[in-house]
Signal recognition particle 19 kDa protein (Dromaius novaehollandiae), 144 residues
Amino acid sequence: MAAAATASPADKERFICIYPAYLNNKKTIAEGRRIPIDKAVENPTSTEIQDVCAAVGFNVLVEKNKMYPREWNRDVQYRGRVRIQLKQDDGNPCLPQFPTRKSVMLYAAETIPKLKTRTQKMGGSEQSLQQGEGGKKGKGKKKK
């Protein structure tokens, strides 16, 4: 504990942790979501969080094999933790527009849906779903 108190905010151990569960709109507060559900994103990944934070100029580190303790699903897509340097050595925020960890989480959740990988995936999946519907042979039952 004493080591953490003496470590400067620029040390990797002092970077803030952001788990994908914090921004996931599929999770409840009890399951680990930390932002309002209307601002949250559907199943974000640590890579997406890293992309948006690095793009805005944060010092970012991804720990691929770390898991959120409350995450029961051991699947690869739920793994990962993003470490972000929030403060400089003197204690001032690295980026003045992000003074708190909450501000970083809200920004990431707001920006992830705009990522190219997201917009392409969404467009592609909708088309493949429609094609899938037409190809099914189960007549009689229609989609409500």
User: Anything to note?
Assistant: Residues 116-135 form the longest helix (20 residues). The chain is about 35% helix and 10% strand.
